[in-house]
Write the structure tokens for this entry.
Amino acid sequence: MPNQTVTRCIETDKSPDLILKILHEPRNITHWAPVFADAIEHLESTRYRVTKDQEKFLVDVLIDEPARCVDYLREMPNGIRAGAYIRVTPRPKGGSSVTMTVPVGPTSTEEQVAEVVVSELDALVRMA
């Protein structure tokens, strides 16, 4: 059975706090994850409206400060709530490690999703 998710990690000399500052502002998604969003609008509390290629969908951005986790979750076509699960951990000698897990969609391959995740992690670190 093929994998249902893809997980990739990147290490950087950037501090966990700096990476998390970018992740905590959902409007930054358009800069580091343009495959996911062209525009994002805050609606209420943790809820945002994302526009991608004229399609609109709702995303909840869930932040767990102590765990250094930020999740971007939406209702998937199969009725399951899923999305990008991101964790930022400090490295022992400074900097951080950023891990992202995302589902493999019904029209994507594991390799395609992995390529996008690596690109997004690279863009996130460059943005920091």
